[in-house]
Please model this.
Amino acid sequence: MHRSRPAVGLSLAMIVMAGVMSGWGTGRAAADPGPDTTLYVKGYSPACSDSGTGTESRPFCTVQAAADVVEPGDTVRILGDYSLSPHPEAVTLTRSGTSEKPITFSGAPLPSSRLTAVLATPASAPALTLKGVHDVRVDSLTFTDEHHSDVVAVTGSDHVTLDRLTVDNYAPTVPVTGTAIGVDGTSSDVTVSRNTLYPSTAYGVRVQPGAARITVTTNMILMYQQGGIAVSGTADADVTSNTVFAPCDAGISLDGGSSGVVENNVAITNGSSMQTSACAAPTAPLYTVSADSTGQVTADYNVAAHSASTSAPARTEYSWAGTSYATSGAFRDATGQGTHDIDGINGYPTTPSEHSPLIDSADATAPGELGTDAQGRPRVDDLLVDNTGNGTGHPDRGALERQDTLTIAAGDVPTPPKGLAPLGISMKTDATSSWGAPLTYSVDFGDGSDPATGTPGTPASHTYTTPGLYTTRITFTEPDGTNAEKSYAGVAAGTATPPATALSVAPDTASGQVNAGFARFTVPAPADSWEVGYRTLSYGDGTQDNLAAGAQQPTHQYPAPGSYTATLTQTDLLGRTTTATTVFHAADAFVAMTPQYDTEKTIAAHGVLKLSAATLRVDSDGVDAAQLQIVTSDAKASGALTLYTHGTSRPGTAGVSFEPGRTATGETTVKVTPTGAVDVYNGSSGAVTVDVATVGLQSHAQYADTYHPVTPVRLLDTRTGTGGVRGPVAGGHSVTLTVGGTHGVPAGADAVVLDVTATTTKAAGDLTVATHGTNDSIVSGPYWTTGQTTTTQVVIPVHDGKVVLHNDSRASANLVTDLAGWYGTTANGAEFLPANPARVLNTRTGTGTNGKIAKLAAHATLKLKVTGAHGVPATGVNAVDLDLTVAAPSGSGYLVAYPDGTARPGVYSLNFTKGHPAAGRALVKVGIDGDIDLYNAGSSPVDVYADLFGAYAVFPTG
Model:
């Protein structure tokens, strides 16, 4: 409530009001307002849009967008905090509210927010300008002001409230001129309250000549170069209960014929520690009222304090009508003002310490005095201090109010904190007031029941009948409303049985490819997830993670192929434990490579060639095995190559067989871990030249393809016209064969596995297989001598479903191509498990034949078990990776490898010629019993070896 003012102040007020009522300025004309709306501004949200309607789900990006459309009664909620991007805008509001429906701009935190919103002040203009508006409230906003310029400007406006704003930045080290909160001379009825203004500008609050009815109350204003509160030429100004830290210049000043009241303020100077080149030792008084204003200004209940009692510089406390007064006593005696002023004390801009003379000594009837302090705390009566102020309410001087300290005993917790429902608890209610005020308590048990009330010392009891996790809250209150509360989150009234656990797993997929060693677990939320204390997922490889209580999808990269048992251990709040397990089969996926033959080397008799990881292109993520093609030439004696992981013992297996005077080729799979290098052993008594190319990689840490074996089927036979070509293919000519889109191979397959045969050959030569439409993806097919029939299995990438077979001989040959399988996307595909090389069949020793030593007879079939041993799972296997060898055949013919339990297909797996050993790779589909069949289509018995290098399996998920 305002006190009476001299006539000049009333006249100016009447002039301003007359102008408003006559339509001068903004006036009061307004359209009928619509329903009240909340508009949201959230500039850091990816969903924000300035062309929308400012809903919470699709907020405005800028504050200006909301300012342009806000209507009377609307609230603009500006969201954000220091950890997020501020709004770097120069916002101008030109729209007004009404007395019944004011417009509000607020940065007060929502329940989901952490701090008040932040606006960054640009260099060119104030961060916020209220221009020609009325009935507007701005509260709970923080401004950063690195440019030290004007921050909030009120121009030509009335009935405006600026409350709980913060202007936050470092003190400038050079002179500046900006104002934190400025009110121009055409504004009136403006309240500046409960703001905290740090020293980024020259002035804290500045009111220009011509303004009227301005209230500056309960503000914290710190370290300003030219003035904390400066009021000039303003009628009816209330400067009440502010705390101004004024190390540089005047704390509070009124001049230019201003009228009003200066009461309950605390102005504080300091010692030399604050002085800089921009903040010199001040000579200006803490309080200044010019001669043209003293007749209309009342000053009382103010405080002049020093922050250092012994080193404070000589500084007058008051200047009244041009005369300086060093003390409040001298000021009071000379002017009659400041009857209740206080000085000679040591103070800081903080809450008064207990028994300070600032406590309960203010004028409660001062115009602009608020019921709460700058932090929103109530003005209360300190029972330890005599009340020396005026009126009721007993406020402290300055912006901050000393509060009672309520101490809640540490033992005020629910006991027991957990147990089976129904759970009975008891809670102590011990608390004390530092002022000795009588207390009452209220306990909210968090289950919707009525609170328990009483006086401290009387325990509160309660029974939780329904299982759940509850938060108890005890609140102690004294008669003036001061209260303190303590919460205990975690009273657990448990269910009869612990929450169930569940765990499933699958390899991670992307765009149809699989990362076969990267597990994605699914942990659903239990029915009573509130009851879960903690969960630990052990991955089965020596590592583990802690999981939150709700639904989770943790992922894990396994270090190598293998079967791992993952265990989820769940402990509830009562200490009961449940577990769930699942098995993850970490394996490899196939990465097709463009072959590069650039490792031609000669290996001496019984010598070893080391091929590095870089040479084999296996130095990428998670590679466990490489599919290689080897071409031998210039052999000095017959023999075979053995390929194995560098640094391991040489196995008793063989890859490509070779003879003098013949070029041979074949593919094989080799484990490359742990070094990535591969050793190639020449088992011959003479040197041989080899050329090696990588045609594919098997990786447990890359998104790649899975394998889809098929029961072997013939795609091309130029002898019969199968595949659309009839008759021998002339030397130097090619055949384009469509593979994708036929026989179950999708058009989008990434690579195919083919058994390629040349027969009825008219001259020595060889065959190449190329990806259609490219010149750099070529592998070698079989090499032959005149009249020889020979077969090689190849893996070749495809991109349009076609491959090209080229007869590099000078004479014709019939070409035959059989499909063994394809690599592509994950549907029903198999993942690869590399194995240590092992000879699983040797008819000379009885290995793989239950000890029976006998050649495979002509037109006979041998059944071979390939699962359940040598690292190959007993179930789920649909193909094995073998090298087949026919040693020293006494006749010519071929082998057919196919899944046991199926009809024998009319295909070639390995051709052999009398007197010449033959070897070649065979990816063979496995029968449902885990066996494969080997059929000798030759006219004489032969010895057969089978070497195992890995298996393909379709693993269950979950």
